What does this fold into?
Amino acid sequence: MFKQMLESRPGTVIGTLCGVILGILYLIVGFWDTLIFAFIVFIGYYVGKKIDFKEFRLQAENLWQWLSERWRMFR
It folds into this structure.
């Protein structure tokens, strides 16, 4: 039954499983830790998807410039 559901509606099943896992993490470690964990997982998913489609190009100079401008106010 689970395999049939996974084949017919993979997004729903995967989304539900992610929700259950994040809910359990929320109960165990708290809201903010879970939110940070979910954000890190999302970044990993995004980078992995870009690598799979050969669209990932790390432009360190642009990233460094953006971070330097962004955090300049804290100096």
Notes: The first helix runs from residue 2 to 8. Residues 51 and 57 are 9 Å apart (CA to CA). DSSP finds four helices and no strands in the chain. The helical segments are 2-8, 10-29, 31-52, 60-70.
